[in-house]
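Extended Data, panel c. Modelled sequence:
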Amino acid sequence: MRLEQFPASIRDYLIAKPGGDLGYDCLGCGARHKADRLLYTCPDCAGLLNLTDALDGALSNKSGDFWRSLFDYRQMLNLEPLKGVFLFHEFLAPSIPLQDILYLGEGRTPVVEAPEALAEEIGAHFYIKLEGLNPSASFKDRGMAAALSYLNFLVRTQNLTSVMAVCASTGDTSAAAALYSSALGTAVKSAVLLPKGRVTAQQLSQPLGAGATVFELPGVFDDCMKVVEKLSDDYQVALLNSKNPWRVLGQESYAFETAQRFDYDLSHKVLFVPVGNAGNITAILSGLLKFYRHKVIEKLPKIVAVQSERANPVFLYYNSPKPRTYSPVTVKPSVAQAAMIGDPVSFPRLAKLVDQYEKICPHSSFFALEVKEQDIIDCMLLANRRGFTVCTQGGECLAALKLALAQGLVGPKERAVLNSTAHALKFSNFQNAYFEDFLKEEYAITAKPYLVNRPKALELKNCPKPSGQRPLNPQESEQFVQISAQEIASTLGLKAKGSGRIS
């Protein structure tokens, strides 16, 4: 849609202009630092940082109706920098000029209502936001779009010629970091640190394919993260984990899109979010609070933080009596690999935002649940059998929804929105291992026969068979096709044509 076709009242605002006054706020000492360089911790006290806009209050000079109208009309604008997460430029990172925005197709992922058959099995109508449809097949692309757009801005304005971007990962972060870094050409190179043997083959292939230098370290993600933090403290690198506040900023777009999907009415909605490094749930809470503060939404939804029982520090914290004390946990192997983190880097951010959230909605607004490994993968397979291709983290959220329904945390008039953070194909090895019942020992998972599916080999006795050495002659080929079709029809219980209606 061309600019002149939009209503005159909105036309001058459709193409976002650089603005705002973004700065780093320290959660420890309260100091504020200019956002004219990459910072991950406070230079004064080494505390964790948040990015905030000192001119944020000016957004309230426009009404909620104005912002809703602007974002809805902007979706029809054919301008690439505003097609993804920066559709919400004024609320996301207004200081980044459009010329520096890196867009690879991220964002605008669908929120799809569960098919009736699945809703009936679960006992509630609900939705899933399919984050696996991002370019590198996970939600991490949202944060990378913001972090690498800012890095692109620094490269251009500060004449940088060689930047090394680094991250620790359980798989998805490395794929997104490598992909978005490679899109900036030779100015930015990437290196990723992975826990050896704890990343699926599909996930490992992604950073390798994007040209990153990949290091496999002993231990788990938390061990890799400590090494990356040491690198960022002692060397000139661009850290791309969620400790980087630009990452968290980009992931706020999930909250904005979810609000837009429901015409900005989030009353009677319950958002289920899997928790790994706590960056995603932090971003979603922050985004919702921004929209609420500026009257883009009038009500805040319930939030349910979901963890596996094998990596559950957030669950333990929020289900302990006050005054609470946070303690990291030692993780055990989980099929929800992206959430297998025992000491989430963004926990201080999360705790602060939950406090703000609960002050606005003091009654039953934030919950933390833990689910069993067996239920995670069973729910993933169940969803896939009923029309939803969800990852193990999506299965984790579905297991939590079943638990929340049983505990009465989700009422009959409420609708859940589950976050399937990545594409199921990244975790197909877990599905295949389940079908072969190979998950017993390390994961304590037993395959349920009704969920198991394996390929069926045709025996084809006394029948010519195709091979790479000799093609079949016409008579042999006809015999092979005839016998194969008969065996398949027999296995499937098919009726011959002319024997009645299809049943």
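The two ends are 48 Å apart (CA to CA). This feature is highlighted in the accompanying rendering.
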